[in-house]
Amino acid sequence: MHHDEIYLIDLWRLLTRQWRGFAIALLAVVALAVVYAFLARPRYEATAWVQVGQVGTAPAGQDPRPEPFQRVLDRLQTRSFQDEVTQSAGLAANSPEARGYRASLKAEPSFYAGLIKLSVRAASPEQARRLVLATVERLQAIHGQLLAEPLAQARARLDEVQADLRTATAERDGLQQAAGKDGVAGQGNAVAAGLLLANKDTEVRELRNARSDLAARMSANYTFATSMPWPIYQPDHPVAPNRVLILGVGLLGGLGLGLFVAVALDARRRAAQPMRG
């Protein structure tokens, strides 16, 4: 503790000797921070949560999504995808707005929930909202194309099962009517008719179960397109520049630079003094 006190006293004496250099460095850094904090262009942010679509009739062990989750994240970061988004938003690929979009686009995954948080910053709230919406719409268009074939196959399979069910039901009804007629002769014919009817009942039950399973997997709980579960979120104030943070960093930086300048000036002063024997 005694050594710490001596060091602080020496530091205070150094600052009192070189207070001009310390003050100039401190004020210069703080002034730059103030100028940047109040003259920097404000940036507005828009945020959207995206639920990646899926087809619930995918075979067991196969990803029901149009493409793997990580691949969706990688796609969002590709230059080709981002250029398609800016083009759909009416921006030139090399415009400042397009460059700002590419630099600010962030995709944060929530693997457990199957959601992706997209955020975009722009010079105005309207532009930020338009760009994040264009990003979601472009992703929806791509996934819609990838999901088209699996959806068509699932609907065709459901139609096929329904047609088979209608046919099997009609055949079972015919067997029941035939069994109820008095024209059935002999014990052997009755047994054969009973077996046929039992087999047809089993077939009808299996087809009904298959239809119910397919219909459930085609419902909105298991089969859906890529969408936004919630509306786009936008704060009512710019998210950058953060003036409090900038001024705080400027103050700390100014103190550090001022101390460095004071120590350097005092070291030069001592070196200029004639050496004592």
Structure at a glance:
By secondary structure, the protein is mainly alpha-helical. Helix content is 65%, strand content 8%. It has helices spanning 2-17, 19-39, 69-76, 79-88, 96-104, 125-180, 187-217, 243-272, and strands at 44-51, 106-110, 115-122.
SSE layout and pairing:
Layout (H helix, E strand, L loop, with lengths): L1 H16 L1 H21 L4 E8 L17 H8 L2 H10 L7 H9 L1 E5 L4 E8 L2 H56 L6 H31 L25 H30 L5
Antiparallel strand pairs: 1-3, 2-3
The amount of beta strand, in percent, is: 5-15%
- Read across the widest sheet, the strand sequence of neighbours is 1-3-2
Instruction: Give the overall form.
Output: rod-shaped
Rg, nearest Å: 37 Å
Report the major sheet: 3 strands, antiparallel
Q: Label the structural class.
A: mainly alpha
Helix content: 55-70%
Spans of at least 5 consecutive residues whose pLDDT stays below 50 are none
Number of helices, where a helix is a run of at least 4 consecutive DSSP H or I residues = 8
Order of helices and strands: HHEHHHEEHHH
Strand element count: 3
N- to C-terminal distance: 33 Å
> What would the average pLDDT be, to the nearest integer?
87
